[in-house]
Amino acid sequence: MTLSPSRSTSKVKRSSIKRAGVSLLGLSLATLLTGCQTYRFDPDSVSAPTSSSYSTGTVPFTVVGDERPDWLVPESADVPEVVVTRTTEMAGTPDLNGLSFLGYILTLTLVPIKDETPYADVFALTWQGETLLESRVNYSIDGYFSVYFPTPMMFLGTLGDKEEEKSVAEDYVTDYHRDNVLATIDQQRTEFERFNPQTTEEIAAYLSGPGANSVYRPSAILQLIDQAPETDTLAYHAANSNIPGYTDLLPVHYQAWMIGPDNLRGIDLETRLAQGVDADQLLVQMLNAYPNQPIQSGYYTGMTRAHHQVLKDAGLPEGLVDRMTNEAPSPQLLAAANTGKLRDENGNIRIPTQEELLEQLVRKDNQGKYMSPYTSDDVLAEWVNSAINANIGSTVGTGVGAAAGAYLGEKALEQVPFVGGFLGGTVGAEVGKSIGRETAISASGGWEAIRSTSDRSFDDISSMARYLKAKYGHTGNFADAMNATRQIYPELAETLAQVR
Questions:
Q1: How far apart are CA 84 and CA 232, in angstroms?
Q2: Which of 286, 297, 275 is nearest to 320 (CA)?
Q3: Can you tell me the distance from the alpha carbon of 215 to that of 188, in angstroms, rounded to the nearest whole number?
Q4: 59 near 70, Cβ under 8 Å?
Q5: H helices within 196-263, ranges in order?
Q6: Which residues, including other chains, have CB under 8 Å from residue 308's CB and lie 6 or more apart?
Q7: What is the SS3 assignment for 394?
């Protein structure tokens, strides 16, 4: 019997409703069986004094950094810069609530487990790497968890997102930070005004006492700088340059003389030159003073072109001034300075150019271990042309491919069943390389011909690869030259790939 269209449509609707009901039931059961995890910021956990009536405060600094609260108002436009940071860190380990755990067990997970994770929200003012003021507010995020029941949802937490609750906490404690910071600055201002440092002795006493960790420390250092005499000004600044932050507040024309490691600052170099120390001897000391670890401070950190120009205008040798940089000296430059291989016509060590350093990698004879494929005229050596004409290196692979192609030929190789397996193994590869190298040497005219037609060479493969790539990597015949050369020196291919 054929169903009418209306009865057929009705049946389809009932089927769709039934499937939707089953899906909803399955989703509900899945939620009940899997349970959930929620988080909630607890305002009562905040450990800080009750917020007071502070709104804004006038401060002796300008604010830089990602955090720039508008409630810190600089007293003028030319005050020092202070960095404001705000971070969140764990303040301890999560604490499991024992009563909730007991209820969780007795109610077969109907009552969720509760734990408290403590955090510290830290607001800090730093200057020249020193913390001048810190506000720390502790709070906790409560977590609720149940395996089979969604009861944690009843505790008004954020489903599965602790970071969102931390953001809520951060907004909540901002007012506490504002009050803490402004109240502390008020106390430091009172202390600074009570101390009222005027003379160099009073300022020094303040900096070593209450001003050691105060937002008024930069202001006090500026006052100390202003006390400099009109004569022997550099000596005055040098005597105070060990005070943290002092050099950074100096004008550029004084600051230039104070930057650098002990005994190698501009003022030190000038003094030692006046005492008769040779400039090349000072250069050697500067190069050897470069630290092995990454530079944070203590070398020529902060030295700029403006500083360099001040020192050059004052008469310091340009070679020394140009080396007052955080750029690491190359091994070749260190070797040149320490061995005296690079000296000018007067016998003084000087800083070579990049081109001169590059030329230090190659020997000007054929007595090295590795022959250069290019002559001193920057053309391909005769033995390289012979290898290219013999098509050495055109087959894919290393010396194995060259050897197989030279001895058997591509078609002949297909007729020898064991060759593929033999050359594919470790022993076969080494034998192939050896055979390929001898074949390439023979095709290039023999070893004596290679040496006799070379007027430059290298002591090690690394120097060879660096020199060839830097000097000839842009030329049109470089690829052909390297294909031919690596048949004689198979290790060149890998070393070239590593050169940057």
A1: 37
A2: 286
A3: 7
A4: no
A5: 200-208, 217-226, 233-240, 252-255
A6: 256, 321, 322, 324
A7: coil
Q: What one-letter code names the amino acid at 229?
A: P
Task: Compute the distance between CA of residue 237 and CA of residue 315 in angstroms, rounded to an integer.
Answer: 20
Report DSSP state, residue 263. Answer: T
| Contacts of residue 140, Cβ cutoff 8 Å, sequence gap at least 6 | 42, 45, 116, 117, 118, 119
Separation between Cα atoms, residue 21 and residue 433, nearest integer Å: 73
Is 22 exposed, middle or buried (CB count within 10 Å of its CB: 0-12, 13-18, 19+)?
A: exposed
Nearest to 69 by CA among 142, 176, 186: 176
Q: How many C-alpha atoms does 154 have within 13 Å on its Cβ side?
A: 10
Contact (CB, 8 A) for 80 and 62: yes
Q: What is the residue type of 406?
A: A
CB-CB contact of 399 with 434 (8 Å): yes
Q: What local confidence, expressed as pLDDT, does residue 427 receive? A: 37
Kindly state the helix (H) or strand (E) to which residue 59 belongs, with its residue range.
strand 57-59
Please give the helix or strand (H or E) that residue 120 lies within, else none.
strand 113-127
Token output for 440: 């390439």
What is the rounded distance in angstroms from the CA atom of residue 109 to the CA atom of residue 148?
A: 6
Encode pLDDT of 175-198 as tens digits: 999 999 999 999 999 999 999 999
Q: At what angle do helices 478-488 and 426-443 cross, to 10 degrees?
A: 120
Residues paired with residue 90 on neighbouring β-strands, in sequence order = 119
Instruction: Tokens for 348, please give them.
Output: 């003084």
- In the Cβ-directed half-sphere of 53, how many Cα atoms lie within 13 Å? 0
On whether the CB atoms of residues 112 and 194 are closer than 8 A, the answer is: no
pLDDT tens, position by position, 317-340: 988 999 898 888 877 677 777 666
Q: Tokens 């290019």, residue?
A: 374
